[in-house]
Amino acid sequence: MYTVSQNGKMITARNGLKVQPDYSIEDLPPVDILIIPGGLGVRENEVKNDIIIDWVRQQMKEVKLMTSVCTGALLLAKAGLLEGLKVTTHWASIQTFKKDFPNVEVMENVKFVDEGHIITSAGISAGINMSFHIVKNLLGVEIAEETAKSMEYDIDLQN
C-alpha cells in the first residue's frame, strides 16, 4: 500500500493530521487498486485541479480496480469515468453530485456500489464495508470474515 500526492510533499488534512506520501503522481509505480479518498479538500480544491483529474483519468487505463471513498467519487466523475454508471458518495454531497453529473445514477442509502471496474462508497465508514467487499472478491469470504473478526468489525459478508 502506498500513499500519493500531486508533488510528493506532506499533506495536512482538515483536522491537522499530517500525511507524508510515499510517492508523487509522477513517480508512483504501477498499482492494481487505486483508492481515491474524499473530504473537504476534494470538494473544494481537487475537483478544480486539472493535473489531478487528468492523472486519475490516466490511472483508469492502468489499474485493475478504481475505487473511491466519500466525495472521492467527485474526482472520478470530473474525470469522466462514471458516465452511465451507478455510484454513491457521502450523503451531504448527493444532491450536488446529481446536479453536476446528470448522466451518473447516484444511489442513496447504500454503503457502496460495485460496477465491476469501479467501486464507489459513501462516507468514510462505508469505505470499510467496501474494503471488505474487495477482500471477499479477491481472497474469498473466509479471509474477509477472519479479517473482520480480528478487527472486531460486525459485517455480513454472505451477500
TrEMBL record:
<dbReference type="GO" id="GO:0006355">
    <property type="term" value="P:regulation of DNA-templated transcription"/>
</dbReference>
<dbReference type="InterPro" id="IPR052158">
    <property type="entry name" value="INH-QAR"/>
</dbReference>
<dbReference type="InterPro" id="IPR002818">
    <property type="entry name" value="DJ-1/PfpI"/>
</dbReference>
<feature type="domain" description="DJ-1/PfpI">
    <location>
        <begin position="2"/>
        <end position="136"/>
    </location>
</feature>
<protein>
    <submittedName>
        <fullName>ThiJ/PfpI family protein</fullName>
    </submittedName>
</protein>
<dbReference type="InterPro" id="IPR029062">
    <property type="entry name" value="Class_I_gatase-like"/>
</dbReference>
<dbReference type="Pfam" id="PF01965">
    <property type="entry name" value="DJ-1_PfpI"/>
</dbReference>
